[in-house]
Design a protein that fits this description.
Blueprint (H helix, E strand, L loop, with lengths): L3 H11 L3 H14 L1 H14 L6 E6 L5 H9 L3 E7 L2 H13 L5 E5 L11 E7 L8 H11 E12 L9 H5 L20 H10 L4 E7 L2 H20 L3 H25 L7 E7 L1
Parallel strand pairs: 1-2, 1-4, 2-3, 4-5
Antiparallel strand pairs: 5-7, 6-7
Helix pairs in contact: 3-10, 9-10
Length: 276
């Protein structure tokens, strides 16, 4: 199954007014567990810096994290880059309408994108699993950071982060057409693997931990996987979606909370931080 057709459908609905777009961002922040982890890490980073900051969102997509950053501090300058021109145009249009002049968006290929010594913080969320030349991109990130700058990455782990589990196949929960892996060039990263790749490009300090532990995996199934499966079956499910979330949303919030607060021996996602 693929996200993009559903993303386009949602985009048409929520892009009709700036108010609906902001509501969409708020929904994503609450539903997506990775957003909980990324916002937590941004808040921790914020405590270590002062004054104007230059931030890169490498793979900005809908602009969800750019909106969070631009709204949080007017002294921060945010640059979002993506490979899809339609998303760049869409984000520039919305942020202009929203009056957030400290964020802008441009087209870029991360394997070629490098701005030596430009950024204090680089965030990269759900991108690296789509890029074959990942070490080349990590190297570009390293060069683009200022001395002391931080890279923050969220990506699937090698513990089933692409929603591919042998036991799922054994229980008939998936066939090849229903796996999320068809959008990825790798299943996910191991903690030692991504640490080694970061070190090879120059990062001397890194911290990596699992997200989407037991509670997080259940939350993801309730809030994302099952709705996407049903929407891939029929778009008529859009009509039932509000009622579905009315039942599952409170439980998802509780599960997300426990995932963010806990430490996990394993998980289907990882968060990696590295400093130049």
């Amino acid at each position: 199954m693929k996200y993009d057709p559903i993303k386009r459908k949602l985009g048409k609905v929520f892009n009709s007014t700036p108010l609906l777009r902001k509501l969409f961002y708020r929904m994503l922040d609450m539903l997506l567990l990775r957003s909980w982890h990324i916002r937590k890490e941004i808040k921790l980073w914020e405590k270590t810096v002062a004054g104007p900051q230059d931030i890169l969102d490498a793979g900005s997509g809908f602009g969800q994290y750019d909106y969070f950053l631009a709204s949080r501090n007017k002294d921060w300058t945010i640059k979002g880059v993506d490979v899809k021109q339609e998303q760049i145009d869409d984000c520039n249009s919305f942020f202009n309408k929203a009056g957030l002049s400290n964020a802008s968006f441009g087209l870029a290929d991360l394997t070629k994108f490098s701005k030596p010594g430009k950024y204090d913080l680089i965030i990269c969320v759900d991108v690296m699993e789509h890029i074959e030349e990942d070490e080349k991109v990590f190297g570009n990130f390293y060069r683009s950071l200022k001395k002391g700058g931080m890279l923050l990455v969220s990506t699937p782990s090698d513990q089933g982060g692409s929603d591919v589990h042998e036991h799922d196949h054994e229980h008939g929960e998936h066939d090849g057409k229903q796996s999320f892996i068809d959008e990825h060039v790798r299943d996910g990263y191991g903690i030692d693997e991504i640490k080694a790749k970061l070190a090879r490009v120059g990062f001397q300090k890194s911290e990596v931990y699992y997200q989407y532990g037991t509670s997080g995996k259940l939350s993801w199934k309730l809030s994302m996987k099952y709705p996407v499966v049903m929407l891939n079956t029929t778009y008529l499910f859009f009509v039932l979606l509000p009622f579905y979330y009315l039942l599952t949303f409170p439980l998802s919030l509780v599960l997300n909370y426990f995932d963010v607060k806990g430490k996990h021996k394993t998980g289907t996602g990882i968060v990696a931080k590295a400093w130049k």
